[in-house]
C-alpha cells in the first residue's frame, strides 16, 4: 500500500532566503515584506520614503530599510549594494513599487505618462536587471512582479497610462521567465484588483463590484507572493495570477 505520509506535496517555504521588496513602506509591499519575514526570510524593504518604524527595521537582524527610487539606476544599484554588503545576494525580488492616476487620456501629458512608465515599468526592469546575474550564478531565484487587472483590461476608466504600464509589467515578467528558466529562476506576475490601500482610497463603492463581497486585503496579495516565492512553485513560471475576488475572471 502507498505510504501517504511520504507525499512530495507541501510548502517548502522561504526560510533562510534573502528577499527585497520595492515600495515596501506601506500597503501591499509592507504586507508582502511581513509575510516573507514570517516565513523565515530576511527582508530588505526598499522605498523612496522611509516608513515610521525605519529604526526598528534597521535594528532587527532579519529586516532592513534601504532608500531606493526604482526609477533611478544609480539609486537601485546603491540600495541592492547595501543589501548585498549586509546579507549577500538577493534570492527573492518582489517588484511592487507603483503609482496610480485616474486621468483621461487627453489630460495626460508626456511628463505624466513618462513618470507612470518610469515607476511602474522601468522600475521592474532596473531592479530585475540588478539581481538576475547573481541569481543566475547561484542557479536559484524568484522574481515576482505586481501587475494589475488594469494591465489586462486597460483599467475601468481613465487609466490609460496606468493600464499600459501594468501590461508592460506582466509582459516583462513573462520575458524574464523565458530567458531565465534554464537557470533555476522563475518569474511570475500577480494581477490584483481593488486591494484596500491608500492607492484606491477615495474611489467609491468598490466592494459592490467584487463578487466575493469585500475589498481585497494586502495580505491576500502577500499570500500569493509567499506561495510563488517558495520551493513548491519551482515549476510555475511566466504566469499571471489574479488576486481579485472574482472582479475579473478571464
Ligand atoms: N491597491 C490596489 O488595488 C492595487 C491593484 C492592482 C495593483 N496594485 C499594485 O500594487 C502595488 C502596491 O500598491 P499599493 O496599493 O500598496 O499602493 P501604495 O500607494 O499604498 O504603496 C506604493 C508604495 O510604492 C512606493 N513608491 C512609489 N514610487 C516609488 C519609487 N519611485 N521608488 C520606490 N518606491 C516607490 C510608495 O512610497 C509606496 O510605499 C503597486 O504596484 C500597484 O500598482 C495595487
Describe the structure.
This protein has 250 residues and is α/β, with parallel strands linked by helices. It has one domain: NAD(P)-binding Rossmann-like Domain (Rossmann fold, 3-Layer(aba) Sandwich), CATH 3.40.50.720. It has 7 helices and 7 strands; from the N terminus they run βαβαβαβαβααβαβ. Strands 3-2-1-4-5-6-7 form a 7-stranded parallel sheet, with helices on both faces. α1 links the parallel β1 and β2. α1 crosses α7 and α3 runs parallel beside α4. The N and C termini lie far apart (41 Å). The mean pLDDT is 96. Bound molecules: nicotinamide-adenine-dinucleotide. The site of nicotinamide-adenine-dinucleotide has 30 residues, from α1.
Kindly state the number of beta strands: 7
| Quaternary class | single chain
Quote the beta fraction.
15-25%
Classify the fold: give the CATH topology.
Answer: Rossmann fold
User: Which structural class matches the secondary elements?
Assistant: alpha/beta
Q: Over all CA atoms, what is the radius of gyration?
A: 18 Å
Provide the list of bound ligands, each named once.
Answer: nicotinamide-adenine-dinucleotide
Proportion of helical residues: 25-40%
Net shape: globular
**Averaged pLDDT:** 96
User: What composes the largest sheet?
Assistant: 7 strands, parallel
End-to-end C-alpha gap: 41 Å
| CATH arch. level architecture | 3-Layer(aba) Sandwich
Strands ordered across the widest β-sheet = 3-2-1-4-5-6-7
Amino acid at each position: 500500500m502507498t505510504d501517504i505520509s511520504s507525499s512530495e506535496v507541501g510548502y517548502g517555504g522561504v526560510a533562510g532566503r534573502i528577499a527585497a521588496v520595492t515600495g515596501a513602506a506601506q500597503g501591499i509591499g509592507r504586507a508582502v515584506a511581513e509575510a516573507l519575514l514570517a516565513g523565515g526570510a530576511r527582508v530588505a524593504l526598499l522605498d523612496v520614503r522611509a516608513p515610521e518604524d525605519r529604526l526598528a527595521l534597521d535594528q532587527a537582524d532579519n529586516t532592513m530599510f534601504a532608500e531606493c527610487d526604482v526609477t533611478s539606476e544609480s539609486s537601485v544599484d546603491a540600495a541592492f549594494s547595501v543589501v548585498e554588503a549586509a546579507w549577500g545576494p538577493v534570492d527573492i525580488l518582489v517588484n511592487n513599487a507603483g503609482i496610480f492616476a485616474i486621468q483621461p487620456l487627453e489630460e495626460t501629458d508626456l511628463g505624466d505618462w513618462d513618470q507612470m512608465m518610469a515607476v511602474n515599468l522601468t522600475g521592474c526592469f532596473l531592479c530585475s536587471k540588478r539581481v538576475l546575474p547573481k541569481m543566475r550564478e547561484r542557479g536559484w531565484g524568484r522574481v515576482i512582479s505586481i501587475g494589475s487587472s488594469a494591465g489586462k483590461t486597460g483599467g475601468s476608466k481613465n487609466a490609460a497610462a496606468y493600464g499600459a504600464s501594468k501590461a508592460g509589467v506582466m509582459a516583462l515578467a513573462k520575458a524574464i521567465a523565458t530567458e531565465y528558466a534554464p537557470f533555476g529562476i522563475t518569474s511570475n506576475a500577480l494581477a490584483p484588483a481593488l486591494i484596500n490601500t491608500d492607492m484606491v482610497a477615495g474611489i467609491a463603492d468598490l466592494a459592490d463590484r467584487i463578487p466575493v463581497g469585500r475589498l481585497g486585503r494586502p495580505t491576500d496579495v502577500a499570500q500569493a507572493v509567499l506561495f510563488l516565492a517558495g520551493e513548491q512553485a519551482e515549476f510555475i513560471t511566466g504566469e499571471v495570477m489574479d488576486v481579485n475576488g472574482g472582479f475579473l475572471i478571464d
